[in-house]
Amino acid sequence: MSNSTVALSSEEILARVQVIVADELELDGDPKDLDPTAHFVEDYDADSLALIQILARIDKELGISVPVDQAEKLTDLATLAGHVSALAEGAPRA
């Protein structure tokens, strides 16, 4: 994990993850307007490849590696951003 990652607040992580999700899922509108509880697959028609691409961009842009085997548990923006924030803080996540 890079030093810049440690300095990111939960709010900053959420904002960056919102942009990544909106971009990868090709959603129109302001990323800040995304429903944090909308289901990636059911509400946004995301497929497994899109979810993997989201995780890859989080790793590349934020320096936070989310194991691919956890992707199926990260079903919405709020859950994903919370998970990424916890990883950034060094907290173990299941």
Any overview of this molecule?
The protein is an all-alpha fold. Helices cover 54% and strands 0% of the residues. The protein has 5 helices and no strands. It has helices at residues 3-6, 10-24, 40-44, 48-62, 77-88. Helix 2 packs across helix 4. The longest helix is centred in the N-terminal third of the chain and has 15 residues, at 10-24. Residues 1-6 have low confidence and may be disordered.
Overall spatial form? globular
Q: Any low-confidence stretches, pLDDT <50, length ≥5?
A: 1-6
N-to-C SSE string, H for helix and E for strand: HHHHH
Let me know the number of strands.
Answer: 0
State the share of residues found in helices, binned by percent. 40-55%
The biggest beta sheet reads: none
Would you tell me the structural class of the helices and strands?
mainly alpha
- Count of runs of 4 or more consecutive helical residues: 5
Task: Please tag this protein with its features.
single chain, mainly alpha, 5 helices, 54% helix, globular
Describe this structure in a few short sentences.
This protein is mostly helical. Helix content is 54%, strand content 0%.
Describe the secondary-structure layout:
Blueprint: H1 3-6, H2 10-24, H3 40-44, H4 48-62, H5 77-88
Helix pairs in contact: 2-4, 2-5
